[in-house]
Fold this protein.
Amino acid sequence: SSSSSSTSTSTSSSLSSSCTALLLQLYYCFPRQWSAQLDPLAGASILKSVQQSSQLDMLVHRTLSELESEPLGASAFVVLRNLTSAHPSVVMRYIPIMAALLEGKSHFEPEQFIAEQQPRLYQYILVIADQLRPEIFKHPQFGSLLQPYLDIVSRLNRTVRGMESLFSRLSEFLCHLALADQARIAPYRGLFELLSSYYPEIKKLHVLLERISKQPLTTVESSAAVASFSDQEVLQLSEKLRLDSGTDADPTFEQAQPVIETLQGLDKVSLRVPSLLTAFEEPLLPLLSCNVATVRNIAYRLILRRLTHHPKNNEAIFEKYLQCLQAKDSTVVTAAVEHGAQFALHSPRFKPSILESLFLLGIVGKQEVKKILMLDAHLH
């Protein structure tokens, strides 16, 4: 009797756990419909795990469902991209749905695939997946997300044209996968050799094949390949990021060349380890107002990457950005305006100040204000 009771309790517990998991999966697929049903069906334990993000889940689900929409797809993509930057762990839950969206199209022949503009959907999801690196590589459903891309490649022939942009982006994404988990992509070497013969102009394909062909890194080499800097190295690199023309005049492009080379190196390394950028915030911020466009553009890219991967303690960044919107140099102002929506989405606290500064610029800031307000409308 005791044994029977124990077995019954175990079975009941297992059933309860399975039901809970099923309810959560249904909620993630249909958040709006199921949010009202979870309380009576599943009790407080399930609600506790979802109630704080239920509105966010609904927004992610809605934007995913609109990615294929002709009039709304591009706007939905912009919203989803910014949601991924702000809430990567929430978007990560929807990888199975992304995989399902792709899987339903991967059986198309290439000509039909292009005619129905499916490369656009595949690119949208690839951009989101790229934002979720490197954690996405460890997701249990990552293989399901990757397979539709491999299926499309396997159906190609030499006469198909119109997917160069998709395959270029896919190659770049897989280069990162090859660095993180070479064994996972190595079995497809022959497939990408064939793709490279069809699209020899895609340089990243050659890089991918080189990375697949290399011997796996040893533990020591892997450690060396991961970017990490000592305090002394941070100080040395920070010094190399300081611009000084030696006079009161603005530095020339030639004088800025050492800084550009240091920025390019930091850009490359931080793609793999974005967290290291927090150590370089102080020397990077002055470069946002540099008169040399190349310096300014890379600095913006690095600062936005820092905000994406480490959104806290950002007051100094936004104060500097607002100063750039009020700078005397028109090229500095123009560059700041072009990044207005990205900065506004990263900080609700500073958004009113950003909008006010853009309004004060008149026609120059008008388009960026529209973009911010449009994104606000989607987010609410």
